[in-house]
Amino acid sequence: MIWASSWKLASAVSNAGGLGIIGSGSMYPDVLREHIRKCKAATILPFGVNVPLLYPDIGKHIDIIIDEGVKIVFTSAGNPKTWTSVLKEKGITVVHVVSSSKFAKKSEEAGCDAVVAEGFEAGGHNGREETTTMVLIPAVVEAVKIPVIAAGGIANGRQMLAAMVMGAEGVQLGSRFVASEEASSHINFKNKVISSKEGDTKLTMKQLTPVRLMKNDFFKEVDEAEKRGATVEEMRTLLGRARAKKGMFEGDLAEGELEIGQVSALLDDILPAGEIVKNVWKEFTDGLANPVKCSNFISRYQLDMC
User: Are residues 49 and 157 in the same domain?
Assistant: First the structure.
């Protein structure tokens, strides 16, 4: 959700009944503090901050999160042992994003309160294992005792219901909220997302950090470089600086980096975040109420509908 999840989106999701999350990966420390304060002013409900551990200034980000009294932190793209104990000592709930059962176990051992199991379908930085959500969720649920939140390829209530049937306690949606009115991403990018089709994204840059991108001129350069066996250094040079900002925030659809999930192929409108939450919840509850489509596994929620 880099360049997409600002305080406006986070507060709108929280106000609608979800848990809004500020994406700090694109923010300098002073910008993060500003967004946290604006989010606190815009909602009295809980919200969190996502901290990608591979980005610079992480220590400053952590200090600001603690200083501003944020109660929930999602960490990703790094070792959960690095900051989990520091955050938990301050009474902060810590959730780590993983792409495998192995890293889910390590997150549990590190003291995380929950994990987000993010499948291969997800946009942005992804796991090298390329395990799909359908396989990953039950595997992680089996591997750990802490709650599991499903992510990757989830944009509606039917998919949320399927994740629950597989054992997840909740879901995390990214791409669906990129195509929201409150997302800080550029309108060019939002329109590109809702016009995309199956096969328009691909996992690439596996030599550096795997990332799912929408296919464009920049993607073609990366793909060609990988096919000819470009070195890691060559790939870093090609990526350069601010490619993600150029694409997702400034709207350069040709030369920018466009991170989005496979589920973008199911999206066809840009809606207010609150309406998205409402729609997802309605689809979920409608699924529970349908005796034909509802699975017997849902009996664990003590529902008599199946």
Answer: yes
Q: Which tokens in the block code for residue 156?
A: 């509606």
The beta strand positions in 20-118, using DSSP E, are 20-23, 47-52, 72-76, 93-98, 114-118
Whether 168 is covered by a domain: the verdict is: yes
Q: Which two tokens stand for residue 294?
A: 């509802």
Q: Output the domain CATH number for residue 12.
A: 3.20.20.70
How many structural domains are present in the chain? 2
According to DSSP, the β-strands at 201-204 and 211-214 are antiparallel
Over the stretch 226-257, which tens digit does the pLDDT of each residue have? 888 888 888 888 776 688 889 899 889 999 98
Q: Residue 18 carries which side chain, given as an amino acid letter?
A: G
State whether 131 and 26 are in the same domain: yes
Q: Each residue of 189-229: pLDDT tens digit?
A: 999 999 999 999 988 877 777 888 899 999 998 888 888 88
**pTM of the shown model:** 0.89
Burial of 226 (0-12, 13-18, 19+ CB in 10 A): middle
Assess contact for 112 and 96: CB atoms under 8 A.
Answer: yes
Pinpoint the alpha helices (H) of 114-212. Answer: 133-143, 157-165, 175-178, 187-194
Are 13 and 87 in the same domain?
A: yes
Q: Which residues form the domain of 192?
A: 187-265
Which residue type, as a one-letter code, is found at position 198? E
Contact 120, 126 (CB under 8 A): yes
